[in-house]
């Protein structure tokens, strides 16, 4: 298995943290500031039977229509067209308008996985099912994978779901 994997989502959901943890080095820039990742950043994970090329993307935003945001959104749209698998990263329990704005751009069907990040920070674990059901009703995702990018939880499961689609 070998292929390109885009990591998309609104600012601050943990896209760069996920890319870093998956690849195992600091290839991307993690920050509280929304616009730290301005360009696509590629990182490669090579294993015995698989090779994944991860494409980190800027946080998708449409609210502020400035030239910088238009440029960054174009980067996201391009990244989505070029890859084999799309990881739409959201934050456990915190769905917002920024997440919803990305939905029309996501490829439909078997290419797009919903990655629910920051499960370590979720206070009410029972709320997870309702949260995920709500999002799954909005887009035909191929699968859902809850993870903690920061703590490295469930990443093997995530890579398995990706590998199935390469
Ligand atoms: P990006 O804007 O989507 O690339 O988000 P970043 O990777 O820059 O992360 C934004 C913030 O969320 C940083 O403070 C991260 O440390 C934090 N973060 C990322 N992943 C996790 C996680 O799994 N759990 C928790 N608790 N925080 C996380
Ligand atoms: Mg980032």
Radius of gyration (Å): 15 Å
How many structurally independent domains?
Answer: 1
The H-and-E topology, N to C, reads as EHEEHEHEHEH
Widest beta sheet: strand line-up: 2-3-1-4-5-6
3D shape: globular
Helix content: 25-40%
Compute the average pLDDT.
Answer: 85
The CATH superfamily label reads: P-loop containing nucleotide triphosphate hydrolases
Low-confidence stretches: none
* Straight-line distance between termini: 6 Å
CATH architecture: 3-Layer(aba) Sandwich
Task: Give the strand content.
Answer: 15-25%
Structural class by helix and strand composition: alpha/beta
For this structure, the CATH topology is: Rossmann fold
What ligand species are in this complex?
A: guanosine-5'-diphosphate, magnesium ion
Largest sheet, in brief, is: 6 strands, mixed
CATH class placement: Alpha Beta
Q: How many strand elements?
A: 6
The oligomeric state is single chain
Number of helices: 5
Family: Belongs to the TRAFAC class TrmE-Era-EngA-EngB-Septin-like GTPase superfamily. Era GTPase family.
Function: An essential GTPase that binds both GDP and GTP, with rapid nucleotide exchange. Plays a role in 16S rRNA processing and 30S ribosomal subunit biogenesis and possibly also in cell cycle regulation and energy metabolism.
Binding site for GTP: 9-16, 56-60, 117-120
Region (G2): 35-39
């Amino acid at each position: 298995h070998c292929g390109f994997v885009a990591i998309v989502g609104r600012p601050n959901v943990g896209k760069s943290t996920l890319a870093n943890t998956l690849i195992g080095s600091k290839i991307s820039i993690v920050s509280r500031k929304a616009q730290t990742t301005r360009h696509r950043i590629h990182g490669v994970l090579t294993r015995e039977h698989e090779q994944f090329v991860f494409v980190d993307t800027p946080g998708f935003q449409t609210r502020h229509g400035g030239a910088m945001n238009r440029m960054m959104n174009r980067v996201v749209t391009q990244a989505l067209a070029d890859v084999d698998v799309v990881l739409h990263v959201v934050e456990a329990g915190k769905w917002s308008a920024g997440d919803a704005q990305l939905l029309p751009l996501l490829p439909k069907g078997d290419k797009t996985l919903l990655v629910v990040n920051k499960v370590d920070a979720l206070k009410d674990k029972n709320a997870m099912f309702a949260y995920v059901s709500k999002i799954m009703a909005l887009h035909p995702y191929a699968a859902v994978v809850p993870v903690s990018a920061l703590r490295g939880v469930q990443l093997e499961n995530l890579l398995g779901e990706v590998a199935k689609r390469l």
